[in-house]
Amino acid sequence: MKKGYMIGLFFVCSVIVVLVVTLMWKRHTMDGFPKEDEGREQAAEPMAEENSIQYREPEKAGRSIVPDTGDGDASQVQNIPAVTTRDTVCIYQDIDEKDGTVSIVEEKLSEKYIGLNREELEAALEEDTRMRALEEDNGFRSQHLELFSPERIKVLRIYDTSTLNKGYYIMEVDGEIRIYKDDKETLYYRTDLILQNLPESVQQEIIEGKYIDSEVKVYHFLESYSS
Predict the structure, then answer these.
(1) pTM over cut 0.70
(2) Which of 137, 170, 192, 224 could staple 210 via S-S, CB 3.0–4.6 A?
(3) 78 pLDDT higher than 60
């Protein structure tokens, strides 16, 4: 009986040893291989790097493409200012400050205004304003550019006809012939004509105050009786 007990104990110990060795071997072999999740992460990292490179590459390599004309013609064309031409329509809007009357006149563009850009045209109009104010007796006061394009320009002109002369009077003062404005007090022109040298019928008209309604007729009168 004692012998059978010893054999059974030996058998049990052998089984335990075999089990322990088997467990240790399995644990060792499992630790030696990468885990499934780790393998997936390691495999995903190169793919992520590759994808990131593929995504960034176009950004690094991407550049705005500007057509090369060779000599910068495109930028020069954009900087060329618009100018008037023979086909440019000229519109004048006239305003009379006397009563607010407005009139619009469309005319062919004057030769002196052709080929000008906006700044040059404004300068030309300003120069004309000074000349017209001195030379013309039609109530003209000022003008300025309101609209500019190669197809059309619009100029606003201001008049004040309330200051216009309504006529002239030819009168005699100390035997001399003088021209006065319509108020008979403001001297317009002092002539070298002598009253006695004029026909008697004309002398009587001048003594009473001969009225002439325009400047042109005044000059015609003076030419008729000047020696």
Answers:
(1) no
(2) 170
(3) no
